[in-house]
Amino acid sequence: MSILEVKNLSVSFKQYTAGLKQIQHNVISSLNVNLEAGEILAVVGASGSGKSILAHAILGILPSNASVSGVITFEGEELTQARQQAVRGKQIALVPQSVNFLDPLMRVGSQVRTSVRKGKAVEAQRAVFKRLHLRQEVEHMYPFQLSGGMARRTLLSTAMVSGAKVMIADEPTPGLDPVVMKEALDHFREFANQGCAVMLITHDIDSALQIADKIAVFYAGTIVEIARAEDFIGQGEAIRHPYSKALWRALPQNNFIPIMGSQPHPGALPLGCLFAPRCEMATPECQEDQPEMRNLRDGMVRCIHAT
Ligand SMILES: Nc1ncnc2c1ncn2[C@@H]1O[C@H](COP(=O)(O)OP(=O)(O)OP(=O)(O)O)[C@@H](O)[C@H]1O
Ligand code: NI
Where is the ABC transporter domain (predicted)? Predict the structure, then answer.
């Protein structure tokens, strides 16, 4: 049993156009993913592809105009709204993408201490601050007194002291200097080695590959491939989905080959495969139905042509 299972998740937002016409934005569609204890799953993909929405759906913190369908289970039991509230910040911790998640009216040391559930709160907070190179006097500061990097380290600290079994880190590293970034990534690896499951959402594929066991590739609101980190090597021959291959080849060290076209807007998704309009391998069949996720070479892929 996976510690966290997301089955057939869809999330949409109702939006009103200028003429008060209502349109539906499908920001996540039929998404399946599992988190295993002891593993780090890195989630990569373009901006606006729905990575943060997935994190917020798991934690039950989507805005009220969102409609959600599908089932999320934690330790084999469905995560209902009540259960999401009960486990949030305790068994399932979030390192949010935005530093606005800090409480502006509370000193940051106290914020971190309220997340400690076992052992001495002050000691745990001071140890994590030291590890992330935050000076001790920072504990007395309010969020507005912090630099962007310090605020991010405070958010990381809050999740790290929580003792959660599942950690979801949404872009935890931008703005951190390389030394602190390495500490943060090493910390995630240690968590996983202790039996915790980590979902690391990131734009930094290189860092993700250094610590992740598996990589999930997001495109236009769904996961198109789940691969082992080792598959991301060379020219990407072992990578299954044409979008994942393109993403890999677009990296500076892999020839910087740009991907033509752009990701479809959530208000106007194509009927069939979401990547078909940009895909060199697309055939008329690809335009008919969205392909199902299928097993391929010890990974998962959502493409009828992948081999
Ligand atoms: N409250 C909202 N109402 C309507 N649409 C929203 C809302 N929040 C997010 N979206 C839309 O959902 C889509 C997915 O957004 P999300 O923030 O999950 O992307 P992301 O993959 O995390 O991007 P980034 O890498 O830039 O953080 C985007 O098209 C975004 O515009
Ligand atoms: Ni995001």
Answer: 4-245
- Does 180 reside within a domain? no
Structure tokens at 247: 């993403």
In this prediction the ipTM stands at 0.98
Q: What is the CATH number of the domain that holds 27?
A: 3.40.50.300
**Residues 84-95 pLDDT 10s:** 999 999 999 999
Q: Distance (Å, rounded) from C-alpha 236 to C-alpha 148? A: 35
Residue 265 domain-assigned?
yes
For residues 195 and 38, is the Cβ–Cβ distance under 8 A? Answer: yes
pLDDT of 218-259, one tens digit each? 999 999 999 999 999 999 999 999 999 999 999 988 888 888
Residue pair 198/167 in contact (Cβ under 8 Å)? The answer is yes
User: Is residue 247 domain-resident?
Assistant: yes
Decide: pTM greater than 0.90: yes
CA 88 to chain centre: 16
CA–CA gap between residue 42 and residue 207 (Å, rounded): 10
Q: What total number of domains does the chain contain?
A: 1
Pocket-testing residue among 11, 17, 43, 53, ligand 1, by greatest number of atoms within 8 A of Cβ: 53
Domain region containing 236:
4-84+213-301
Is residue 155 in a domain?
no
